[in-house]
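Researcher: Next entry in the queue.
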Amino acid sequence: MSDKYSFYQGDKEYPVSGEEGTMFHTYPDGHFPARYRCRQTNVTRIGGVPTFNSEIRKEYIVNYIPEKNSAHCQLQDYVFQADPKAFELPLEEMKPLEYSKENVSFEISDTGTISSIQNFRELQERWSAFRKKFTNTFFYQDIKKVNEKAADDILKTGDKEFSTIAELLRSYEKNMFYHILFKDYRPSNKSDSLTFMSQIFNDQKLNIPIVNSKASDKDGILIYRSVGNPDLKKMNKDEMIRQYDRIYKPVIKYNFTEYNYEYRIRRYVNKKDGIITSAKAVMIERIKNNYELISQFDLKQVAL
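Model: Structure for this entry, 304 residues:
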């Protein structure tokens, strides 16, 4: 088969994926597991000078089950570092929830996107168990002493996230790992777009039209490219300048220049089985020459 949808119901060809055709004897027939390692780096720059950076590394096993139109994803390893170091503490405290949340079974649509969560009730129960323990941690209690509303907001955010399948799906869609593996990146998807909130400006919604294309077909590997830029006409530039003058200009000194957002993903797909073998994503939100938020995500399939 020639694209990522070759492992969905209706196709009769299910080649084994993996390095050099390795057979996975520990999985039943019709299951196609893949192990992925990924790294995400986040950098904040003010006037070209880095003021914050973090790196998150994760390892997953994804078990594709084409005949059932499903995929099970399980986080295997999770390490991180941040500068300033103070940002590592909340990540460490939420680490058990990451392992619980990222042990999930999805229903997959015919276009390769996530349509539902099969073990949603179990995930709700995991959140409830984590919530009880979390409220007794020194981390939570310290926040509560300083700012009770902030502590309460952490719990309310989690309660909302795990309240419905739709809310939890939105959370997974924001995770670059699931975004890369389970987004419809076919060139035939002409109406592709993303909508989310700016990380620089408050209450500024970004609409990013995305163009998907096949960049290459060589040596058994298909390369798909997705590129997006915001529709700046739909953004309130006057409000952006007001916020910039109030929040950023006292530090940066320079006037507001030009706002932009870049979205770029390149996926490398095994032509035989349609499984992604590697990918690179870059997201940059910036006020030209003044302020930048840069996220880079690299994914690679490794030996099972």
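Model: The chain has one domain: 4-302.
Researcher: Noted, moving on.
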